[in-house]
Amino acid sequence: MKTVVLGGGIVGVTTAYFLAKAGDEVVVVDRCEGVALETSFANAGLIAPGHSYTWASPRAPKILLKSLFAEGQALRLKLNADWRMWAWCWLFLRNCTVERSRLNTSRKVRLCRYSQQLLQRATEDERLTYDRISGGLLYLYRDPASFERGVSNMSILADSGLPLVTLDRRAVIAREPALAASASSIEGAIYCPSDESGDAHLFTRELERRCRELGVEFQLGTTIHEVRASADRIDYVDTSRGRVSGDRYVLALGSYSPFLARRLGYRLPVYPVKGYSVTLPIDASHEPPTLGGVEENQLVAWARFGQRLRLTATAEFCGYDTNHSPADFSHMLQTSKALFPNGADYQRPSYWAGLRPMTPEGTPLIGPTRHRNLFFNTGHGHMGWTMSCGTAKILVDLMSGRRPEIDITGMTLQ
Q1: Residue 201 near residue 277, CB atoms below 8 Å
Q2: Domain named FAD dependent oxidoreductase: which ranges (predicted)?
Q3: 32 contacts 38 by C-beta, under 8 angstroms
Q4: Which of 403, 411, 387 is nearest to 14 (CA)?
Q5: Domain of residue 254, CATH code
Q6: Is position 178 within any domain?
Q7: Residues 172 and 299 both lie in one domain
Q8: Does residue 411 lie in a domain region?
Q9: pLDDT by residue (tens digit) across 184-211?
Q10: I need a surface site. Which of 283, 328, 339, 390 has the fewest CB within 10 A?
Q11: Which domain holds residue 379?
Q12: Do 350 and 300 share a structural domain?
C-alpha cells in the first residue's frame, strides 16, 4: 500500500513514521526545502498535557475585544476583510461557554496524554535526541487572584488523571532556583511532573532520518498545485515536479489545509492563529532555568534547549501574515527579564513568527473523508508537537480498519 502524505511538518512526518512502521510505502511532499520549517520550526517546545486548556473559554471574548484598544493582550484580534476569519471567529465564540470549554479541554487532555506516551516510546525506540528535558513544567502565577483561578481550573485536567501539584512561593523556588531573583513577584505555581520540553524542529529532523531508513521518500522543495479527483477517489497530486500518485492520501498541511480541501468540496474549520517566539543564546555566565513553563498572567512560555532559551507568546488573529518586528517581542522579553534577569543573552535575540492551525474547539481533525482514499490529519493548533504522535497513530489505526485506542469523539469531520 502506497500512501502520499501532503505536508512535511511535525504532523506530516509523524504520520509518515507510523505509516512506515505499519508497512506502508510512503511519500512525503512539502514545498519547503527541509522538514519542520514552518509552524514546527521555532514553537514553544513544550510537551504539555498540563496546559491542555482550550483557548475558547468564557474569558476569551473580553480579552479579544480589549486587544483592539490595548497592547500586551495574550489574545489579539487584528481587523481585516478576510471573511474566513470572521466565519471562524463566530464558531470560536460559540465555544466560549463554560460547558463547551470543559468538554473541549477534557478531549484535548485525553489526546495529549495518549500522544505523549507514543512520543516517549518513539524517542526510546528510535534513540531520538532533541534537547529533551523531562523534569516537568511549571505554570506560574504572579498574584493571588490568578493563582486561585488556576488552582480551581486545574480540576478539569486532574479529573482526567493528570498529575498536578500546587506549589507555594518557597516550593516554586526550590523546584526552579533560577526564579530566586524574582521570588517576591511570584504567588505560586501548578507543577505537572509528567510534562516535558525539547526542540520540536530537532525532533522532526531526527524522525525524518529514521523515516528515510524505513524507506520513506521525501519530495521536499516541491509545490503542491492541485489534488485531482474523480467520483469518490483521489487520482493523483499535481506538483511542481510532476504527478505524485498513491493508493491513499493524507492531508497534513496545517493552516494551509483548507485551501486544497476547499477545491475538493470540504470546508475545514481551520484558521491560522499567529504566534511569536524569540530564541536567546546561553553561556557559562548566565543562570538559565532548568525547567520549562508558562507565566500564566502574560501567557509567556519558556523552555531551555541546551545552550538556548526559547520564549513564546501571543495568539494573534490576523490571517496568513507572518511578518514581525522587534516591538512584537517586547512584552515576552520584559516578562523573561523579570523572571530570569540573568537567564540568557538578551542582546542577541533571534526572532520568529509562525501560524498555528486552529479549530474553534482546539481539537484536531483526524480520519476519513467522503473520498474513499483521502484522510485528514490537521488543525492541531498550539499543541501540534504534543498531539502529533497520537493523531498519527489514531489515523493509521483508522486507515487500517482498527478502532483507535482512545475515544476521538469531536475530532473527526462527523
Answers
A1: no
A2: 3-398
A3: yes
A4: 387
A5: 3.50.50.60
A6: yes
A7: yes
A8: no
A9: 999 999 999 999 999 999 999 999 999 9
A10: 283
A11: 2-40+202-269+363-399
A12: yes
Residue 131: beta bridge partners?
none
Burial of 83 (0-12, 13-18, 19+ CB in 10 A): exposed
Residue 207 and residue 228 in one domain: yes
**How many angstroms separate the CA atoms of 229 and 232, rounded?**
7
The three three-digit cell numbers of residue 326, written as one number: 522587534
Give the CATH number for residue 315.
3.30.9.10
- pTM listed for this prediction: 0.95
Query: What's the structural domain count of the chain?
Result: 2
Strands 25-29 vs 75-77: parallel, antiparallel or unpaired: unpaired
Residue 65's pLDDT is 64
* Same domain membership, residue 192 and residue 148: yes
Residue 28: all three cell numbers together: 512525503
- In one-letter notation, the amino acid at residue 223 is T
Q: What pLDDT, on the 0 to 100 scale, is given for residue 282?
A: 98
* Contacts made by residues 336-340, CB under 8 angstroms, sequence distance 24+: 336/300, 336/302, 336/309, 336/311, 338/182, 338/185, 339/140, 339/179, 339/182, 339/295, 339/302, 340/178, 340/179, 340/181, 340/182, 340/287, 340/288, 340/289, 340/302, 340/309
